[in-house]
Amino acid sequence: MVEVKAVIKNEAGIHCRPTAVITQAVAGVKSTVTVTAPGGRCELGSALELMMLGLEQGTQITIQATGPDEAAAAEKFKELFETNFDFPNAGQG
To answer: What are the helix (H) ranges across 33-85?
Structure first.
């Protein structure tokens, strides 16, 4: 098992769009990845469970990866959770 800490940097926290990016990335790893936050714990893969953690900007989380690519998986998700997502505003062309 590999464990890393991360801090949510996205201004709007981990809302629907970042959650979609993160949960889709799970398909690319062979390890089981879990996130622990002040609001609880979940295994990545479930968008609803991830959103229910209420990850706001500045929240510190712990990412744990267990499996054949655990070190790479832990770093990949640390990077994703610390990304400043820049999604275009809805309704603007």
So the answer is: 47-51, 70-81
